[in-house]
Amino acid sequence: MDKLIQLYGNINSILDRARPAEFLAPLLIRLYLAPVMWMAGIQKFNNFDSTAEWFGNAEWGLGLPAPALMAFLATATELVGAVFLFFGFAVRIISVPLMITMLVAAFTVHIQNGWLAIATGSGVFATERTTGAVDRLDKAKEILKQHGNYDWLTENGSFVVLNNGIEFAVTYFIMLLVLFYLGSGKASIEHLLCKNLCK
Fold this sequence. Notes:
mainly alpha
């Protein structure tokens, strides 16, 4: 047992040599999330009226109250959040409304579709819905192989069925939660400002 504890300590000592590069973790999470949030926000901004209508419509939309206000808040949060994440400014603060946005998206849009973002026919997260989607996809591929140039159609990637489950929203939420606790890291405007002003 003592040898195992010593081995564990030795491995940790070796891993601790990577500490000077720990700024990479929050930096890479920020740089991953920034374009995701920007694209979501800019899409809402460019289609604001239809976004607000979708937010408010109870029949085919989300049925949220004050849809124009909610659409504005979601759009502003994602756009401002993207900029703050990219530059590393007020990251812990902006993580909170971004996490709320991800939770709202998960529980109003995605949860009824299950976990998977992309439909698969097997595995622990596969459902009747995703299995059915894969069956339809296989049929569509058959039709395309018979009547289309399938090699050309799939030259830049395979066909998939979007299941639109909570997978991505939860993943982004967890990444934002990490940033909420870690902050922006040393490779950020926030760190530079605090280094000079927060004394």
